[in-house]
Records
---
Amino acid sequence: MQTRFSTAQLANPDVAASEQILRKCVHCGFCTATCPTYVLLGDELDSPRGRIYLIKEMLENDRPATADVVKHVDRCLSCLACMTTCPSGVHYQHLIDHARVHVERTYRRPLHERVLRALLAHTLPFPGRFRAAVALAALARPFAAVLPRQVRAMLELTAHRARGGAASATDAHVFPAQGSRRARVALLAGCVQNVLDPEINAATIRLLNRAGADVVSVPGCCGAIVHHLGREHDSHSLAAPLIERLHGELERGLDAIVVNASGCGTQAKDYGYMFRNDAALAAKAAAVSAKTRDVTEALAELGLPPVSRRGGPAVAYHSACSMQHGQKLDAVPRRLLRDAGFEVREIAEGHLCCGSAGTYNVLQPEIAARLRERKLASIARTGAGVVATGNIGCISQLSVGANVPIVHTAQLLDWATGGPPPSGLKRASDTASQ
Ligand code: SF4
Ligand code: SF4
């Protein structure tokens, strides 16, 4: 695609990077077929190619974002299915990230949107505040019918997953390997996941310990949630201290930085790009990105611990967008589940997002609900007794309305190798036997 940026514009490194991305697009439109918003809405401006044109026009003309551009940029899930499909290697992720920052800087949203976005940005990345918000949500639930739809969506999502305010097993710092130590890894303890379902980190730690790894739990939010809201300053403020902590652990000797929420993993693997223009942090951020592994990647490298329990329900594996499109990890989780003795069933239209996408299901509840219904119908057709996935956002999104438990892949692998059954699965089997 031809571009018309001036030399002065290209002096801005973000504009220069976007210009390189735009030049790769050859307008072929292959990406439209796999874009969830185009599939649902059928509007070219809600396709990757349409958004690329809108972003190009906005950036080339150095224009503030208009309400129309914001509408179509906001509807993008950042699912990155378009990147998997694109034959020209267009790095849509970095382009839409730049567009979101431009929108945030140049467009004044209506008051209710500003309040909601600020609330999300100042609550979700902070476990203490989020725990308090979850408790408040429980009090507000009886009045849900009279609340705005975005608030209702929030209440719905937390109702199905919140495990109360108990501190999780990851509040301690080092979890020693079982048997002879073969590796030392850091686990990103995270924010939202640890409040909604602390069992996931506990299962991950047991699994890695059993695989012979010392696990250092490192607290902190990766910044992905606010990054997707276009709040560049906030995402850098959250990520920078985490990078320093992780880099400190790297210097003490680490085989991997393990992330068990694939949205956060995609973000951490992109720190090198995110901080490329930060002289103080660029090298550390790149080193952290290079060592970051999804928990399933780390287990594939370490080797799955011996399987002590076979059987259990057939598993429908839901490949989160951040896993399959963001990190290009599709085969590894399925293989581990099969190695652990599970029958793995495929979900039709597996490339399509479930509608979770960070805070998308709160900010765009109608589209998110349509994508969830479509995904749940595909899941039901598998006849599986449980769904495994690697991202807490998908777990929360699909748990609303699912008739089978939705659990983390690490929980099933932990169960098969000596851990307790995931409590969602246990509750379902207790109910069935009553
Ligand atoms: S990221 Fe997903 S929703 Fe956004 S344009 Fe690409 S395919 Fe469509
Ligand atoms: S598939 Fe790639 S090159 Fe083709 S229109 Fe989409 S982004 Fe552009």
Note: The CA atoms of residues 56 and 150 lie 30 Å apart.
---
Amino acid sequence: MASLPPRCLSFFVLFLFALLINPAISLRTSVIKLPGSDGSADTFCSSWRLAVETNNAGTWNVIPSMCVDSFAEYLNGDQYGSDYDVIADYALAFAKTVQISGDGKDVWIFDIDETLLTNIDYYRAHGYGSEAFESNSFNEWVVQGTAPAFDASLRLYNALKKLGFTIILLTGRDEDQRSCTETNLRDAGYSDWERLLLRGPEDQGKSATKYKSEQRSKLIEKGFKIHGNTGDQWSDLLGFAVADRSFKVPNPMYYIP
Ligand SMILES: [Mg+2]
């Protein structure tokens, strides 16, 4: 078997030595650092957040426990609101290209939770999505009716009204939460929606994708043209009878199929 020439061997030994003493040479190994090893948690959590926002992650239940601090920083900092702002700007730019017919049939659909209203105060007290969803405590929060508006969503909502869009609210909340939801929306600054569609008895047990698609389909049957749709869940936007343009606002805290 041929052996390495002495010159090559000394270069190889020198390279090995340099690798051991100089971390910069090990830079490429950092991309395969395990999540949780020093310094990589934020990187991993940003990537995980991108994966859920793009729906690459598909169905998931709770956020990785190692991401609680990272998501708390995102959700309580400027980035979260800025993300809504940029999306609202794109939605509005599209809305301005729509020819409004003036017959009241040009529709923009909004979801409510984490789209018009923020439940961050609830999720702050429940681990930012690291705890399994508990419907009783969430419903108690909903009944309080104190969820604030996202500034960007309120801005978009009012701008769409001014442009002549008919606003329809389509939520996974139950029909028996109509009154507290309406009060909360008004207190948060929203007004003049054409319809507020909530889950009735016949919608129980349906996936959000199916329920919302059916509701959109009924609107289209009634002659409404669904130009835009804004929601924090892919199940707000996908399925059938989809809007001409769908706008996904961020939600790294929970996933609704
Ligand atoms: Mg929502």
Note: DSSP finds ten helices and five strands in the chain.
